[in-house]
Amino acid sequence: MKKSTSAALAALILAAAPAFAEVVVVVNPANADAVSKEQIASVYLGKSTAFTPIDQSDGSAIRGEFYKKVADKDASQAKALWSKLVFTGKASPPKEVGSSADVKKAVAANPKAIGYIEKSAVDATVKVVLTP
Amino acid sequence: MNKQILATLLALPLAVNLAHAQESGEGPSIKVSGFGTGALTISNTDDAEFGRANQARGVRKDARTGVDSNLGLQADVAINNWLSLTGQGLVRKDAEDDYGAEATLAFAKAKVNDALSIRVGRMGVPVFMISEYRNVGYANNFVRPPQEMYSQVPFNNIDGIDAVWQHAFGDTSFTAQLAAGRSKAPVAVNLNVEMKSLVALNLVAEHGPFTVRFGRADGKLTVTGSASLDGLLGSLRSAGAGYRLPALNTLAGDLVADSKKASFTSVGLGLDWHNFIGQSEYAKRKTDSYINSTTSWYVMGGYRIGKFLPYYTHGQLAVDSVVANTVPAACPAGYPAACTPTLRALSAGVATLRSSGLGQGEQSTDSIGVRWDLYSSAALKFQVDRITPKNGKGLFLNANPGFSHAVTVGTVAVDFVF
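^ Those are the sequences you sent over. The predicted structure of the assembly is below.
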């Protein structure tokens, strides 16, 4: 508990750092060493269920940067793609959490989870699989 | 449709929303979402009305909101990690000239494994490339799906069962969907189209920016409640019996839409490469009734500039074949004097079927428009359509006699999701 609190604090401080913080894609330490950009993009666009994706909050800078770098899409383009899946009842959009610390928590708790965080927030609870 | 059930269904997400606010994290999780479009549509003529397929009224020179506006609410309930329930209600102007509510989705979904899921209840019927989200403006670039093609099958839903199988072969993801059941769609007040033994197959392959799709739907088609159609068929049969002209009875049998074989085959292509957007479909409709066999297609291309997406669409609908009008021009010598005028009236009646109801007509449309993603969950669209009817009134509604000229339609729409 203490550890995650301090991690959350650290993430908060880091989140206040310049917006061009580098984004990295992380998975559970028990998972694969590398996942291709294409595979990550298809998970986040609802085309693959190989991982359980975790999103950051709507409108956040890191979310915009992640979709641009990994899927070559604006956050709003990604939302339009998801609305095709949601309103046909085919899939539910990724679960949203509020910070990189919460992403790490969710990824550490689920061997199938995948998420993206600032590079500076990386620690032993997650494993980096891609630096786009 | 039972209005009370619908009212309950539409109220459900609101009640559920309250429950959602107090979510404990235990037990079934409930998610409420919605989509909608607020639009104003205007035309440059008073000679005919422009509307979507299935609509009773369209727009003339006085701008109307009813052509392109709608509101959908959806509730998804995850019972556990393999079973979920989905309900969706849609409010729009359809076969009657009032905003009406319909239950567009109501199904239970069982996830068999990561690749396969089975759904039972009311699902979208995957006849076209965008059939299942054609009413979700936010999910599409154009204001409305090209009417030349999307008028050709009036069914939005299927009541039955479907299986969706998804698998990735390398970087190509493949989705196969097979649905079986029945469907019923109101086309006008009291006029219904029904498809029994409906089987629809939908195959989609996606590779990077490319999407390729094939679809095929087969069923037994019945049209009920058309007084003019029933009257014409009755007159053909009684004239055939009265004047001993069996060809008229045969013709009535060929025209009637009473559990007749019908099929729809289509292919589609999609492109989303950097800033280039493209979408195209080509389809063949075939029926063993007065409903025309047709070819329809469209091409859409766009180029994204930041938050703006200007696009161009061309759509075309042509009749391949109709039931031959075999009403004789005149009665044999020695028949009663009233016989030949009767045949002429019947022949004229049969000739009108070619352009009566159910996407019966020939036309093409050129559209230019722009989508502007002005906010993370809302898009503003402007679209101008130039519609040219061919061999008659095209797909226009309530046309004045002799109407056949090209019409310009303008639309401004705001699409949103929540």
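The longest helix of chain B spans residues 3-21. The CA atoms of residues 187 and 357 of chain B lie 8 Å apart.

Shout if you want it in another format.
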